[in-house]
Amino acid sequence: MGQTEPVELVTIEDIEQAAARIRAFVLRTPLLPAPWAGDDERPLWIKPENLQSIGAFKVRGAFNAIGRLDESVRTRGVVAYSSGNHAQAVAYAAAVYAIPAHIVMPEETPAVKVAATRGHGARVVLCGAGQRERVAAEVVEETGGVLIPPFDHPDIIAGQGTIGLEIAEDLPTVDTVLVPVSGGGLASGIGTAVKALCPSARVIGVEPELAADTAQAFRVGHRVDWSIEDRNRTIADGLRSQPSELTFTHLQNVLDEVVTVTEDQIRSAVAELVFRAHLVAEPSGAVALAAYRAMDFPPGRTVVIVSGGNVEPALLREILAG
To answer: pLDDT tens digits for 275-310?
Structure first.
């Protein structure tokens, strides 16, 4: 899975243009101080992307990618594959642009995410584990729609990078940013923006131990392949993808390290966000706080990204019951 040809990196200018393009469609989420964290050496701020209209950061990349399409192309409709949050984001953006959306989702996707995607008017096509890309290609052939990938595209990376732009504007003295890693679009974009505007800040990726392909890849210096069965073990269903050549190249350029957290640490972070921050986070959205609690990072102002809040109610009840 090594890199075969040069990859063109997204720039801070791309991210600034994305910010202007999506401004009318997405929430500029606040940077919330968290005095309850109780760590004077590492004061904490939270970037709550779970407050976005579809409950996750993915809406940023979706609006940027769809907004950049020529109108003649866009009217043919869009196709996406996703375990949930990208699906909802593309469905919502397509509804705003009044174009058809065809979304391929794995059968194991939480029902709340499937229902929300259909609720935006999208056609949902369910598929078996590990079949998303193949089925999406068939849907593109069938419909003539444009594929909007979940992370493997410069426009998606630039859209997600607008989060880093906002962090740099609101807390230019930030020392550490903790960001979830899955396919790598979020961390690639945030890392690019933060490193450009706050070059002394550390950007740290966070993965579940049970889906730690990127952490292993950083250790060996090239992408590695974990089976879908292995990656599906984690409760963090939004963090089961693997970086592409494009995103992994970005991650190598902008992440200082990648750390992992346990399933119990993820569950504890979900509960802490509810009880202390009054924020509902899905397990994937809570891993950055889990890392903040579990790891011994250098002192300094720390920001954790709460990337999404689309959690199954039954799972949330189970976690909160302890």
So the answer is: 999 999 999 999 999 999 999 888 999 999 999 998
Contact between 316 and 309 under an 8 Å Cβ cutoff? The reply is no
Domain boundaries, given as residue ranges, for the chain: 12-54+153-321, 59-147
Distance CA 139, CA 147 (A): 9
Q: Which residues are marked as active site?
A: 58, 307
Q: Which helix (H) or strand (E) holds 207?
A: strand 202-208
Q: List, in sequence order, every residue forming a beta bridge with 103; answer none if it has no partner.
A: 80, 124
Long-range contacts of 315-321 (CB under 8 A, 24+ apart): 315/110, 315/235, 315/283, 316/270, 316/274, 316/280, 319/267, 319/270, 319/271, 320/270, 320/271, 320/274
Spatial distance between the Cα atoms of 18 and 155, rounded to a whole number of angstroms:
8
Record: fold of 12-54+153-321: Rossmann fold (3.40.50)
Give, in order, the Cα–Cα distances in Å from 164 to each of 116, 173, 179, 190.
27, 13, 10, 4
Angle between helices 12-22 and 58-67 (to 10 degrees): 90
The pair of three-digit structure tokens given for residue 146, joined into one six-digit string? 């444009």
Task: In whole angstroms, give the CA distance from residue 41 to residue 178.
Answer: 16
Question: What are the residues whose beta carbons fall under 8 Å from the beta carbon of 319, sequence distance 6 or more?
Answer: 267, 270, 271
If DSSP codes are grouped into helix, strand and coil, which group holds residue 128? coil
> What topology is assigned to 59-147 in CATH?
Rossmann fold (3.40.50)
3-state helix, strand, coil in the chain (%, to 5): 50, 15, 35
Q: What is the pTM of this model?
A: 0.93
| CA nearest neighbour of 44 among 53, 52, 35, 54 | 35
8 A C-beta contact, residue 128 and residue 102: no
The pLDDT tens digits for 217-241 are: 999 999 999 887 888 899 998 888 8
Question: Are 12-54+153-321 and 59-147 in the same CATH fold?
Answer: yes
